[in-house]
C-alpha cells in the first residue's frame, strides 16, 4: 500500500509540474489576455452578430 501511495504521489507531483508549465505558457501568449476577458460577452459564433447577456448585468 505504501508503494502505491508513493507512486501516486510522484505522478501527482509530475502532473502539477506540467500544469505549472502549461499555465506559464498560456500567460506568455500575447493573445491570452485579449481572449480571456470576462467583460467581453460577444458571441464567438461568427455567423451571428448578437452579443450574449449575462444574468443580472
UniProtKB/TrEMBL annotation:
Residues 30-57 are annotated as: Disordered. It comes from the Eukaryota. Residues 30-48 have a biased composition (Basic and acidic residues). This is Uncharacterized protein.
Amino acid at each position: 500500500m505504501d508503494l502505491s501511495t508513493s507512486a501516486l504521489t510522484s505522478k501527482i507531483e509530475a502532473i502539477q509540474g506540467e500544469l505549472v508549465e502549461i499555465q506559464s505558457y498560456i500567460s506568455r501568449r500575447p493573445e491570452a489576455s485579449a481572449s480571456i476577458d470576462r467583460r467581453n460577452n460577444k458571441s464567438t459564433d461568427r455567423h451571428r452578430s448578437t452579443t450574449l447577456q449575462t444574468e443580472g448585468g
